[in-house]
Automatic annotation (TrEMBL):
Name of the protein described by the UniProt record: Opsin
PANTHER family reported in the protein's UniProt record: OPSIN (PTHR24240)
Pfam families hit by this protein: 7tm_1
GO cellular component: membrane
Organism: Renilla koellikeri (Koelliker's sea pansy)
Annotated TM spans: 20-43, 55-80, 92-111, 131-156, 176-200, 239-263, 269-292
Subcellular location: Membrane
Keywords assigned: G-protein coupled receptor, Membrane, Receptor, Transducer, Transmembrane, Transmembrane helix
Record's bilayer topology term: Multi-pass membrane protein
Ranges where the G-protein coupled receptors family 1 profile domain occurs: 34-290
Amino acid sequence: MSSERQPPINNFSSSINIVLATVHIVYVVLGVFPNALVFFVMIKAKKLRQEPKNIILLVRTFVDGLQSATICPLPIAASFAGKWTAGYHGCIGYAFFTSWFGLTSILLNALMVYERYFTLSKVPPRSLSHVFTYACIGACYLAGFIVSCFPLLGWSSYGYEAMGYHCSVVWYSTDWIHASFTIFLMVFFYAVPVTIILVAGCGVVRSVHRLHGVVKQISGTSSSISKAVFTTQVKATRLVAIMVAGFLIAWTPYGAFAVYAMTNENPPMLVATLPSTFAKSSLVYNPLIYLFMYRKLRRGSIDLMQNIASELFGTTDSSTGVKHTARLNSNRVGVQLISTTTPLPGTSSAFDDPTRN
């Protein structure tokens, strides 16, 4: 086996390994459950999926949860074993999917800010069509996929990162074939999307200010614009702004390190390990932002958990032998619970009486 295919020797102390393993365990637990909760609530609540911004959130939630369940466990195993344990081909697969979903995420962030700008740029607010929204989402994933294939085809390459806890594009090389790909990523998958986010974000601020003036003038009259509409749009805009800010905070250190590594082939190993670890925190706080800031989603999540608890621990009326459970009403935003009754085997209830209408 060539030396480049052998995982690097881990020189970290056991305490650092334990800390890194613990961090990724937290990513798995807090990344899988909240993302799954948000995903299933949106699947159940049809009205939530009628809004373009929620379609984008639904797709991101699914992918973030998938990454938490499949990508994050590999660094946990590497931390406990003291080296990469999934083999060279596992390293390449890990790097490819991490690159694909990471590049796609920043494009989706730009798309979400554009959606807010498009929605608020006219009075009354308008929405992107579902066809256009799905087409943009598909284009984001296709672009991320194509670019992530370049290292497999010879433009740069994938390999072990730092001490072998992660695998990624080869950042720490001054060879032009690697440095040129890093420059390409930083320009087209960081600088350009961030510029779009900033420009569209400024447009959103101006639009909200203008919409506030219109609402203030006509509030209380018969108009399609109301305080409720204004408040809803502002809350949605605030949610998107915090999500984008969180993503940039998580991934900017990684981008900065990539630029630094182009001119420094031997960066400190701990410094080289931390940016990848910190970048994965976005998998955790995105669904938490949804739940804390999106009241409809939070209410739907509570209802969903109550529904699951009711199905598992439904109460039984001893006098009638009827088991009381609950089911989700997906026709209403908020996924509201509806009480139902289920007779236990061998018992009957008033609902079984054929004389009742």
